[in-house]
Amino acid sequence: MKKISSVFKVVFNSKEFSDLNILCFTDDHIQKLVDNNASSIYDQMISDTSVLFYEFLNLQRNREVNKKSKNKQTRQVQHVISELKEMIRKMEGCVRSQTTKQSETYLSLFPNGLSEYSKINRSNIESLLNRVIFFLKTKNEMVTPEISSNIHNLYFEYKKEREEHLKRKKDHKRIIDENRDLREELAQQLQRNLYTIAIKCLGDTDRANDFYNEKLLMSKRLKSFENYKTGKSLETKIKS
What we know:
The protein is mainly α. It is built from 9 helices and no strands.
């Protein structure tokens, strides 16, 4: 016998079930409630569950759009960094052609050699580029106007793209937090539905299939909610 306390657990918020599984499972559950609602006894349950379902569905869609946007912005930032690395490599060639690697001038810009700049990333770019910009202000004659201009422009572009990137990351975190809270609400609603239906059908375990499709909770074949809906539509046509 299971412990009585296990009955109080919100099983629908388990990590075993992905957000997509819960989404498809809930959609199917709502439709089954409608199909079994001839006497309107499930009106309130359908309404309460549908509100949370559509909020969750919209949030999932926003999350996907934001994720793609964030990833695109990440790639854009990395592209600008790559361009900066190339310009600094050319800058190093200009400086090295006019002095030696042991000179004070060279070491003021490349104290750890050119390889230090090949490791530019979002955590060290500010300190390294500040050194480069200072060098361009004090030793501008050692670098071609084109390289100097490109470095300034790329650094400005990096700051702009990085600011947008941080905004996307912040938005993504907000959506993740909202998703966690909303999923908890939906999970509790599904749990209440389960207990309400179970009480009405106490002892008749076969009735569970009239309201739930447990396979949707564990399915690994679900790729998107849209594909799931298309599959359901085809299934309905075949049955009819």
